[in-house]
Structures are given as C-alpha cells and as structure tokens.
C-alpha cells in the first residue's frame, strides 16, 4: 500500500526531501517539506534513509529470450518488502560482456544509496574476474547497493540499520556477491564448453545443422540498414544483439562487393 502525505511547510528553513518510513502495518512513501519546528524533529529520518530509489535490472542473453520475464517476480518481492520500484531497465545482452547500455544507463541514473535490484546475480554478471572487478568498482564508486533475490543477505540493505549492523551486512553481502559472480562465470564457461563438445561431436557425425536463422527478422534488419538507420535504432526496433547486427552488416558489404565485381567483369 502506498500513501502520499504532505507535511506542512511552516518553517522558512524547511527543505524538500524524499524519504520513507516503515511501520509494522503499513509502509508510506512520500515527498514533503522536512518539519523543523519544535516537537516534530523526531519525525526526521536519518540521512541514509532519505533518498533511496529502487532500480530494477532485467536482462536476457538473446533476443529470442524474454528479458521482461522476471518483472512479476521482482514486483512481488518489492511489494513483500514494502518497497516501490522507481524504474526498470530491460535489455537483451550477454551477461559475459561488459558492454551493456541499459545497465550503464541505470548506473548513470543512480544517486548514492540507490538500490540495483536483480532476480539473480547472474543477471548482473557472468563476467571474467577482471571485468567483474571493474563493474564492482563502478558500482561501489556510485555507492549503489545490489539486492538480488537469490542472495537473502542483500535484502537487509533496503531497510534502515545502525552503523555497525549496516557495515556488517554490507561486508557479508559484498563477499557473497563475489562468490556468486564467480559461480555464474564458471557456469557460463562450463555450458560453453559442453556446447562446443556437443557441436564438434555432431559435426563429426554429419548431424550438425546449426541454429536456423530468423529470416523475417534478418530481412527487417537489412532493410533498416539500407535506410541508413543507426545501430542503436535497429537494436531497439528489432531486439537484436550487436553481434547479430554486425554479422548482417558484414554480409551486406560482402554481397555488395560481389555484385560490384560481377558488374566490372
């Protein structure tokens, strides 16, 4: 339940803040003038609780997968925890790549104390150790808190806590994040290895045909390239990955070169 409440702006030194109070039966989120008159100062929230936006990150590896699949799960978690998701960032990019425009747009939008909410840690990272350290460094520099549904220790980061408890859970959470990020990377590498072994075996037996191309989508991508649309516009319109777009663009250049060569002959 979300309740908007306006506090009276009765003091010339009042300032506008956004903050949250959590009670035993209801959670209230509101914008209001911070009361500074005598007798109301005990309602003032602590600084660390004054502005906390929940930003959900939803990722799938390919355009064939539904990146929005986890939305209902994240929404249900937010309701259960008495939170409200301020914005959602959805993209189809591999978690093994550091180049993810929506993730970096999310981080760019964040202010210190905001929460990056994900269904699982592997939605955030299947990165190599060096790339994960780079991403963690950026997240830490922005003072963004990561909350993952598969990491219960992180759930406490959305609730007010004293300094000792907050630091203790932040340290535990950081360690567990590193562990789960390493597990996600290992799982990614194991799956890639098994796929390569299976492909090699199928090729040796003459059974490998590869993944069938989505001809309708690829034709649309080629048409958009012909129209001079930017890669970002094409990826947004078709949901294709940058890798697929690069392949189609390369194939177009090769066909064009072949046609020009035949014309000269």
Characterization of this structure:
With 265 residues, this protein is of the alpha/beta class. The protein folds into 3 domains: 1-45, no CATH class; 52-184, Rossmann fold (3-Layer(aba) Sandwich); 215-264. It has helices spanning 71-81, 101-109, 121-124, 129-141, 163-204, 215-226, 231-238, 242-264, and strands spanning 16-22, 27-33, 54-60, 85-92, 115-118, 145-148. The strands form 2 sheets. It has a 4-stranded parallel sheet with strand order 4-3-5-6, sandwiched between helices. Strands 1-2 form a two-stranded antiparallel ribbon. β1 and β2 form a beta hairpin. α6 packs across α8 (242-264). Residues 1-50 have low confidence and may be disordered.
The CATH homologous superfamily of the largest domain is called Resolvase, N-terminal catalytic domain
Could you state the oligomeric state of the chains shown?
single chain
Mind summarizing the main beta sheet?
4 strands, parallel
Number of separate domains: 3
Count the DSSP helices.
Answer: 8
Distance between the termini: 74 Å
The helix-strand sequence is EEEHEHEHHEHHHH
């Amino acid at each position: 339940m979300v309740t908007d409440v306006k506090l009276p702006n009765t003091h010339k030194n009042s300032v506008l803040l956004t903050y949250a109070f959590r009670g035993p039966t209801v959670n209230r989120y509101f914008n209001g003038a911070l009361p500074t008159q005598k007798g109301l100062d005990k309602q003032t929230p602590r600084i660390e609780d004054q502005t906390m936006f929940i930003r959900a990150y939803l990722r799938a590896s390919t355009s064939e997968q539904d990146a929005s699949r986890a939305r209902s799960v994240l929404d249900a978690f937010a309701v259960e925890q008495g939170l409200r998701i301020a914005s959602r960032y959805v993209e189809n990019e591999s978690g093994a790549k550091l180049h993810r425009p929506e993730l970096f747009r999310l981080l760019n939008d964040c202010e210190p104390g905001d929460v990056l909410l994900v269904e699982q840690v592997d939605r955030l990272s299947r990165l190599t150790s060096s790339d994960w350290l780079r991403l963690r460094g950026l997240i830490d520099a922005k003072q963004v808190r990561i909350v993952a549904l598969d990491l219960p220790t992180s759930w406490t980061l959305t609730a007010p806590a004293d300094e000792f408890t907050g630091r203790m859970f932040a340290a535990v959470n950081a360690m567990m994040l590193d562990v789960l990020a390493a597990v996600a990377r290992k799982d990614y590498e194991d799956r890639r290895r098994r796929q390569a072994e299976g492909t090699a075996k199928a090729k040796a037996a003459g059974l490998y045909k590869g993944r069938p191309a989505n001809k309708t989508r690829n034709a649309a991508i080629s048409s958009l390239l012909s129209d001079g649309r930017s890669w970002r516009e094409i990826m947004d319109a078709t949901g294709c990955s940058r890798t697929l777009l690069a392949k189609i663009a390369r194939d177009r250049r090769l066909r064009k070169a072949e046609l020009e060569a035949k014309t000269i002959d």
